[in-house]
Write a structure and sequence with these properties.
- By secondary structure, this protein is mostly helical.
- The protein has 2 domains: 77 residues, Orthogonal Bundle (Rna Polymerase Sigma Factor, Chain: A); 82 residues, Orthogonal Bundle (Arc Repressor Mutant, subunit A).
- 74% of the residues lie in helices and 0% in strands.
- The chain is elongated and about 75 Å long.
Length: 172
């Protein structure tokens, strides 16, 4: 199939259903600013289709692609952890005055809580979280070290962050 034929097919779909797919995405996204990027991804995926003439229902196919793009975006957001500060917890101790035993005791308790929560994690999740957040390793470096894929490292980190956030919230 020629590139011109493919482009004209996508152009026709865009004219007929472009507005509908943008509304479809906007209704399902929390951040309306992502609609343009995701609709562009839908069109790019449609442009990659080799045999558009074999598609029986182009509108249904188009919205199926949109659903897949939306699902992938939701999955990416769910597995991408929010940044957390895992800098040296002992740095907090330098901010606590030597003469305030209550503040030192509170800091010691918080550090023990963090240590206990991290100890509850599966070994790969704990290692992934610490290597990434504390030591600054990339997902690829962690994956190589642990013998897992980059996406598995992302999942480990996301689960670890969620677990830590929930446990530490319960402790407060």
């Amino acid at each position: 199939m020629s590139g011109n034929s493919r482009r004209s097919f996508v152009t026709e779909i865009a004219i007929r259903h472009g507005r509908q797919v943008r509304r479809y995405l906007a209704a399902r996204l929390a951040n309306k600013g992502d609609v343009a990027d995701l609709s562009q991804e839908v069109f790019l995926r449609l442009l990659r289709v080799e045999s558009h003439d074999k598609i029986r229902n182009p509108e249904a196919y188009f919205f199926t692609i949109a659903s897949h793009v939306l699902y992938q975006e939701t999955l990416n957001r769910a597995t991408t952890p929010e940044p957390i500060d895992m800098t040296d917890p002992a740095a907090d101790s330098r901010l606590v005055s030597d003469g305030d035993p209550a503040a030192q005791l509170d800091l010691q308790r918080r550090m023990q809580d963090i240590d206990r929560v991290l100890g509850q994690l599966a070994p790969n999740a704990q290692a992934s979280l610490l290597l990434h957040c504390r030591d600054g390793w990339t997902l690829e470096e962690i994956g190589t070290r642990l013998g897992v894929s980059r996406s598995m490292v992302k999942k480990h980190i996301a689960k670890a962050v969620l677990h830590c956030q929930q446990c530490l919230k319960d402790l407060e």
